[in-house]
Amino acid sequence: MNRLIIASLRASAGKTSFAVGVAEALGKKIGYMKPFGDRLLYSKKRLWDYDAALMTHLYGIKENPDDMSIGFDHSKLRYMYDTAAIEYRLHELAERMGSGRDLLIIEAGKAITYGASIQLDALNLARVLQGKLVLVISGDDDTILDDIIFVKKYVTMAGVTVAGVVVSKVRSRDDFTATYLPELQQSGLPVLGVLPYESELTYFTMRFLADRLFAKVLTGEAQLDRTVKNIFIGAMSGNVAVQKPLFKKEDKLIITGGDRSDMILAALNHNAAGIILTNNILPPSNIIAKVEQAGTPMLLVAPDTYQVARQIDRLEPLLSREDKEKIGLLKRDVQENIDLGKLA
Amino acid sequence: MSSIRYLFEPRSVAIVGASKDPKKIGYKVLSNLIASGYRGAVYPINPAGGEILGITAYPSIAAVPEPIDVVCTTIPAQAVFESVKACADRGVRYNLIISSGFSEIGNTEEEEKIAAYARSKGMRIVGPNIFGVYSAEASMDATFGPGNILPGSVAIITQSGALGLAMIGKTTVENIGLSAIVSVGNKCDVDEADLLEYLTTQERTRVILMYIEGIKNGPRFITAMKEATRLKPVVVIKSGRSERGAVAAASHTGSLAGSDEIVDAILKQCGVLRADSIKDAFNWCKYLAHSPPPTTEQAVIITNGGGIGVMATDACEKYHVELYDDGKVLKKLFGPVTPSFGSTKNPIDITGGAAGAEYDAALSVALNHKAIGSSIALYCETATFLAADLERVLENTYRNYMAHGKPILFAIMGGEDIEHAIVRLSRKNVPVFGDVYEAVSCLGTLYRYYRYLKNRDETLETVAFDSAPVEAICRAAIAQNRFFLLAHEAQQVMAHAGIPVPRSEVAHSITEAVEKADAIGYPVVMKVVSRDIIHKSDAGGVALNLENRDEVLDAYQAIMQNCKAYNPDAVIEGVEVAEMLVKDVETIIGARRDATFGPIIMFGLGGIYVEVMKDVAFRALPLSRREIIEMIKETRSYPLLLGVRGEAQKDLEAVIMNIIKLGTLISHCPLISDIEINPLMVYEQGQGAKAVDVRILLSHNERSSS
Question: Which architecture characterizes domain B457-501+581-706 according to CATH?
Answer without folding.
Answer: 2-Layer Sandwich (3.30)
